[in-house]
Amino acid sequence: MQGGSLIGPAISIFMPAFNAARHIEAVIARVPQGLWPRVEHVWIVDDGSLDGTSEVVAGLCRGNDKIRAVHFDRNLGYGTTVREGLARCKDDTCDIAVCLHADGQYPPEVIGEYADTMAERGTDILQGSRIASGTALSGGMPMYKYLANRILTFFENIVFGLKLTDYHSGMLFYSRKALDALPFDRLSSSFDFDLEVIALARSRGLSIAELPVPARYGDEISYLNPIAYGLRVVGVMARYLAKRYTAP
Q: Residue 68 CA to chain centroid, in angstroms?
């Protein structure tokens, strides 16, 4: 381990945040107290929020010197926000970086356990699967999203040669090897960034796995256009088949 200790691999967390003022404090509060000694930083990347997110984040930073803020003056897109978070984590001494959304949809409670499992198994990219947990529909995933997910996943497994159950969860874990090896600056500025990470990792021989995470849909606002996103997913698969993600 690079920055780890006897208690496990060192972790950096990054949080893409857009108009997340109502939720982000509660998400931070759910990070287990026992995890904090292993945390290098929590990077909150505010993508030009208009609802007071920056003020809430400033308060979090004052209360915890491991929390750091990055603010964009205008909305630059989900992929750009994730790319910035990954760059900050890469500069840390972490062994594993974790994408944790600021709206509370994904569980910070599993971060330590899943990072340990990832390190033990030598996994490079780990995705949290809402489908594998069996809670997608009971957790509030709209039926149209569930059906679209299942259809897209069927074709994605064929294209990528994997056996995942959920390519569209935003909770991803990145090994130090992945942080150092993958050229994230080549990837999309939109919501298909995460799928491009999988395509890029797969094309370069990195290991990819998933573990179940509970689905939780509350009163958060989704800014994802499902039709545009579906077309982007098809585009990622087409580019993968055309070997566009292969080095260099």
A: 17
- The C-alpha atoms of residue 232 and residue 210 are separated, in whole angstroms, by 22
Domain ranges for the chain, please list them.
Answer: 11-241
pTM summary value: 0.93
Q: Is the preceding peptide bond at 16 cis, omega within 30 degrees of 0?
A: no
Q: Domain 11-241 sits in which CATH superfamily? A: Spore Coat Polysaccharide Biosynthesis Protein SpsA; Chain A (3.90.550.10)
SS3 85: helix
Closest CA relative to residue 236, chosen from 191, 195, 182: 195
In one-letter notation, the amino acid at residue 78 is Y
- CA 188 to chain centroid, in Å, comes to 14
Long-range contacts formed by 28-36: CB under 8 A, 24+ apart: 28/60, 28/64, 28/67, 30/104, 30/107, 30/108, 30/109, 31/108, 31/111, 32/108, 32/109, 32/111, 32/112, 34/112, 35/11, 35/111, 35/112, 36/66
Q: What 3-state DSSP class applies to 70? A: strand
Give residue-wise pLDDT tens across range 191-217. Answer: 999 999 999 999 999 999 999 998 777
Structure tokens at 105: 């949809």
The Cα–Cα gap between 98 and 111 comes to: 8
Contact 64, 98 (CB under 8 A): no
Q: What confidence tens digit (pLDDT) does each residue in 114-169 have?
A: 999 999 999 999 999 999 988 888 888 889 889 999 999 999 999 999 999 999 99
The number of residues making up the chain comes to 248
**73 pairs with which residues across the strands?**
none
